[in-house]
Amino acid sequence: MHPRSVRPLSPCADNLRTDGIRQAIARGLGLRAAAVWADVPERLLEQWLANDPEFATAVRAATALAEAHGLQLGQSRTPATVRVVAMAVSRGATFKEAAATAGISAPKLRQLWHTSPVLVALVDEARRVRRHRPREFLPSVGRSRTPARTSPAGGYRLVRRDGAAGDEGSKE
Fold first, then answer.
1. Is the pLDDT of residue 33 over 70?
2. Can you give the pTM of this predicted structure?
């Protein structure tokens, strides 16, 4: 079994994700959207298609199945499209990037946005839960990995120093 940090080179070693890709394509999603659906990098999917003829044949069969049901890859607005848009937004994609990932144009996604309260709710939730980057760069040496914090007042703290020049009063 491969450690989680290393991606296997063959789709046979990773059946869950290859099954997810075939399922997404059978639902009418394009390759890019299928990669998001199955949580597989696009480059790895391209390698699988180029290097494994059995997997490529299975993907073509899933494409034929989608077309037999009247779905054109990347052009159908289905619940799978809504899921891919929400997943892309949760990973930090903009509205336009999420539309491109799902294989639909931004105007079509806006039209779907206005007619689907489910899409609105899913995208709002995806935006809420996506990871936020720290606002400031903090070097990793000698500092914690949490963002820098300011004082509770949010400003400067004034300190009086005894014996400082000009503090003793005038002697005239």
1. yes
2. 0.59
